[in-house]
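Journal club prep — side note

Before the paper discussion, L.F. wants everyone to see what a predicted structure for a comparable chain looks like in token form. Sequence:
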Amino acid sequence: MTILVLATDIQWEEMQLLVNDQWHRVVDEAAFFAGKADIYINLLEDSIKKDYSKMPEPVLVNATCTTLHSMQAPSHVGRLNGWPGFLNRSTWELAVSTASLFENFFRENKITPLYVADEPGLVSAKVIAMIVNEAYFALAEGVSTKAEIDIAMKLGTNYPFGPFEWSEKIGVHKIASLLLKLSETDSRYTACPLLLKESNL
């Protein structure tokens, strides 16, 4: 099996626990779309804007906020969360139209697929975004400092990162963008003004 991956240096480095000699990284779109593979993975942030209709094999794209439905994606395209901190796991959260197209890839690479509804944020990104948002509300209210909130959450909940560490690792603009998208249909996801200010959105 040949796996062709279009990824940044950070994303590729994070995936090293999964990568074997079947995985091949390319750094430009021309090589990605011209390459021959059994599965294609586009992790770049603008991956949702590309046309995959002529791709011969299954494609996974980094589409945390954008749904397959809104992309009008063909049935051989699936979406995953390509945020930093989510690619170095043996379980991948995905939204796909045709799960059977991806079964060989997951089985051969010992990755457990977790199929979820085709909604903005999937599940885990939605949860992390809300945790970060609540931390920003606490910071804005003067409850504590960023460093102290991070320490409290790591010690109290055994999280690998505190909420502000998560926001720094992922990118506060990505979290804000997801919250803005989610809040279009559910006010529970209303972004903290301080978070929006720091994200420049």
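L.F.'s comment for the group: The CA atoms of residues 1 and 38 lie 6 Å apart. Keep this in mind when we get to the figures.
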